[in-house]
Amino acid sequence: MASSRPIPPALRVPLALLAVLQLTLFVLARRDLRRRPDDQIRGSRRWWRRATFLNTVGPAAYFAFGRRRA
């Protein structure tokens, strides 16, 4: 079994920023899905809810492709 090594200090800040970005995109996408009317969402609301769990890709895809202009 491979031994785990501590994260180098030079990588801690970028990794923390990526984690914050991922969490922020997730929360914003979920909130937008909850508030946006059905006619302003491309595709199934259920599908987009599930897609938001795909790391950063899901929420980013929702903001890029899942919303219709108001």
Summary of the model, kept short:
The protein is an all-alpha fold.
Outline the structure in words.
The protein has one domain (13-66). It has 70 residues and is mainly alpha-helical. The protein is built from 3 helices and no strands.
- Would you count the extended β strands for me? 0
On the 0-100 scale, what is the average pLDDT? 93
Helix content: 55-70%
| Total number of domains | 1
Indicate the topology.
Blueprint: H1 9-35, H2 45-51, H3 57-66
Main features:
mainly alpha, Cardiolipin synthase N-terminal domain-containing protein, 70 residues
